[in-house]
Amino acid sequence: MSDWDKLIPKPESKFLRVKCPDCGNEQVIFDRTTSVVHCNICGATLAEPSGGKASIKGEIVAILD
Ligand SMILES: [Zn+2]
Fold first, then answer.
1. Residue 48 sits in which domain range?
2. Given pLDDT bands bounded at 50, 70 and 90, which one contains residue 18?
3. Element (H or E) spanning 6, and its range?
């Protein structure tokens, strides 16, 4: 008997639609980005890498699989 199969987390990564807090632009970013993501419109920081997962600075409006 093994419950290990259920416990192993899937290496899931997602794309997030994030709204820029400064200008309201919505932009799709990768949630495991390895570089800082800037807003295409105003250049504000939307996400920065943080131990594998991105630290999201804006508002997440949707999660895309
Ligand atoms: Zn912006």
1. 13-64
2. very high
3. helix 4-7
CA 27 – ligand 1 centroid, Å? 9
Q: Is residue 1 part of a domain?
A: no
Residue 22 within a domain = yes
Domain CATH code at residue 39: 2.20.25.100
The percentage of residues in the chain with a pLDDT greater than 70, rounded to a whole number, is 83
Domains contained in the chain, number: 1
What predicted TM-score, i.e. pTM, was given to this entire model?
0.77
Distance of CA 45 from the midpoint of ligand 1 (Å): 8
* Distance (Å) from CA 65 to ligand 1 centroid: 24
